[in-house]
Amino acid sequence: MSTVIVAQRLVASDSAQRAHFSTRWPQPKTAVVSVHGELDASNAPEFADYALGYVARSQKLVLDLNAVEFFGATCFATLHTLNVQCAGEGIYWALTPSKAVSRVLRICDPDGALPTSPSVAAALAMLQTEPRPLQLVTERR
Hints:
alpha/beta, 4 helices, Sulfate transporter, STAS_dom, STAS_dom_sf
């Protein structure tokens, strides 16, 4: 099975802070959006536009943030918005966080409401075999 990269964009707010976005479709109706570099308040709108742009085009979405070296807390709002939009459109999704993203998730998502996976392969397998029920609010136990 071949992977086709259908989109790439380089975002540079200045020479010191850059992010590179790309998308591939490893399976029909399944998008893998990858981000490399640094995400902060200066490029959060571009990150949001890019990631949210694939919600309506797919049935399953993996947001690969493994190569994100810095993840500002302001970017968490994009992940929350993505979760809400996916839930509203019946799209199953998962994200693969880097250490920088995991650090922010521990603070901003302590109950683990956002669907995370250790790798893109694991996320694809999870979405293929047993998609996680869509959840807007974590259940209290």
